Amino acid sequence: MADAATATNPAREAFYKKVATKDLSPLWTTTLVQPEPAKFVKARPHLWDFDAVLKPLLLEAGGLITAKEANRRVLSLENPGFDSGAPRILESLYSGLQMIMPGECAPAHRHTPSALRFIMEGKGAWTAVNGEKSFMEPGDFIITPSMTWHDHGHDGDEPFFWMDGLDIPMVATFGTMFFEAYPDDRAPQTRPAGDSLARYGANMRPVNESWTKPESPIFWYPYSRAREAVESLKNNGEWDPFNGVKLEYIDPTRGGSAMPTISAFLQVLPKGFRTEVQRTTENIVFTPVEGTGRLIAGEGDKQVTISWKPRDIFCVPCWVPYRLESDGEASLFSYSDRVAQQKLGLWREQRGNA
Ligand code: GTQ
């Protein structure tokens, strides 16, 4: 803004006060449109430690409140760049860590935000989506599409942890927030476990069945299958210098992302790999499954080096340059708002230094 436009000027000040009483503001006194994301994006690269922080605090919460009382026993990840109160990990994305204890029920509900689960630790818990149960194993990726009934249960004998990724901030921007509780704790089971994967998960589809919804018909993407795919490509030695081997979870009926607003990926970095620097407008949440390494993110005096290990959760905000380093071989799950940005014509990337 030119100094002349904001310099003290009694006639202008009087005018600004007057327009404010009419629910108006002069655009020239505001900084609505910025030259680049760094001047606009508040989120910072940050890591939440699973073993030292998330798990012990959730276990403590387990002694204070049941899953049913809490509805969802979740600690929401609040990026330190934002004011507290409307939890989000990045400008457009929500992330939380959820724990369910043996025998507990997280009651059935549905909402307009789309959710994904990425399984961190435990045995014997399940999520039911649209009448179909998925038994969850560490590393599995599960989707809960917008307005599908879902409840979580646990038949095992140890605490069970998963990461929730939702598009809550995007839905909140539009104002299109709806939530309904199901009248009973459990929504009815109408299809056998594994049904959606059998129908659509074998590079085949049921004859005479059409699929027109904006999300994948598959709810459950087991880690074993995804890991096997990246392993084969890894063994063929085709490394992308920016991402190692990185595959996206897709909707097999269209070939696009599994969810309409969130993209999800599994990538492998070979032993001792250092990716080249890149930046994209994507807001990205990572959680390592196997291996340890570092995230180097930001520029100049804002650059940070963050060490990661399995089940930690870390984030890279829009347009922050970053690279990843692995010690031994590593695999990382990530989700981002890439598909939403691409649909809106906003996505861009820069590979290497400018
Ligand atoms: O499991 O449905 O972390 O509705 C936040 C909102 C989890 C869920 C969250 C939710 C859920």
Quick gist of this model?
By secondary structure, this protein is α+β, with helices and mostly antiparallel strands. It has helices at 3-6, 10-20, 50-62, 67-70, 168-174, 195-200, 223-235, 338-343, and strands at 46-48, 74-76, 94-100, 105-111, 115-121, 125-129, 132-135, 141-144, 150-154, 160-166, 179-181, 220-221, 245-248, 263-269, 278-280, 284-290, 293-297, 304-308, 313-316, 322-326, 330-336, 349-351.
Labels describing this entry:
354 residues; alpha+beta; Jelly Rolls; six-stranded antiparallel sheet; globular; binds 2,5-dihydroxybenzoic acid
Describe what this molecule looks like in 3D.
By secondary structure, the protein is α+β, with helices and mostly antiparallel strands. It has a single domain (48-351), classed as Jelly Rolls (Sandwich). Helix content is 18%, strand content 30%. The protein has eight helices and 22 strands. It has helices at 3-6, 10-20, 50-62, 67-70, 168-174, 195-200, 223-235, 338-343, and strands at 46-48, 74-76, 94-100, 105-111, 115-121, 125-129, 132-135, 141-144, 150-154, 160-166, 179-181, 220-221, 245-248, 263-269, 278-280, 284-290, 293-297, 304-308, 313-316, 322-326, 330-336, 349-351. The strands form five sheets. A six-stranded antiparallel β-sheet has the order 1-19-16-21-14-13. A six-stranded antiparallel β-sheet has the order 2-3-10-5-8-12. The two termini are 26 Å apart. The model has no long low-confidence stretch (mean pLDDT 95). Bound molecules: 2,5-dihydroxybenzoic acid.
